[in-house]
Predict the structure.
Amino acid sequence: MRASRTVVLSVAMAGALVASMVAGGTAGAATSKAKSPITIAYLGILTGPDASPTAEDPLKLAANEINARGGADGHPVKLEFYDSNITPQQAVTATQKALSTNPTAIIGPSVDDQVQATAQLLKQSGVPTLGLTSGPLTDLTNTHLPNFFDINPIDYNTAQAEAKYIYTKYKPKTVGMIYTEDAASTASATFIEQFLKKDGVKNFITRTEPNNVTDATTAVLAMKPADAVFINSFPVTDGLLVTELAQNGITAPIMGAQADNAVQAFKLAPASAMANMYYPPYCDPDVNTTKQAKAFTSAYKAAYPSTTQSAVDDPATYDGVYLIAKAIQAAGGNTSHSAIISQLKKLQYQGACGPYKNDSENVMINQAQIVKLGSNGPSGKELMASYNFGTIPANAKG
């Protein structure tokens, strides 16, 4: 497992030092007046086939911006990165390492099963945690973690958006579904089927695969009678499914999973195979027209000119750093865990990924969108629909 890497971004402290020197003060005097850094620990998929090489970039961008403006109420932001990968045990190990440094807040993990595995550790620590998860296992009713918040759209909402869009546009009589056995993919597929049944779809072809599948030909061939195919897994697996669907002559519209911009960005499937492929993004500022989304894409391009924003693992991490900073500012500079949690419950914030406002299940964003990937690469993506949902039902089950 990759050891944690520490990034200290102390523009604010440097600015205080320069100001002190200009005024004739000493370095020691400037340091004594500087507020202590806040530490944000990121738990993410940093190694292995499911890792994104750009996973750390949005957090670094946000921290740099905040520090350049003087920090979070004067507190410089420090980032620490821990590889939680995709298994529960890897998340436990990464969480233990992160908590040993007494972080101010945590962003991650990104796999629902990992939240269950680390719940007791997080509860005992009391550290405010912004999860990048999406399934019902991470709702407050199920976790009983008052310090855990979801900052990604929840499966219950993205499933509604997926089902509504495909049914409205294509009126399928038979729907194919391929998903892997992790909790989030299973929950999402179950929700989608429930919503499609309400719309009147009666025929389903369902196949499941292990997370590490390398050949899904049998499941793919079963999709031939389908009028639309829904796939739910990690991007590498979804790339395999999209590729094999095309190879076997299946041209029905495909609805992918929340992170499937990576299928296109990292060329995990041929461009031609994505001609009629859609996905419900966790966050896709490329296609949003809000001033916050435009500001993010502009800043990201300036900071990382060799990388398109489409390749970003989950831009919600950018908003996550800002949410923590805003909570500290709203608390008058109080960096205690309880103060940050209290403010996160009340905070309203328009970020690059959309509007954040906490609900009764500690879900902070209830917007879901549908984006068409298409065969023309990231520049050809198109926002097809946006849906704003209310609070999810307590204990929604997949």
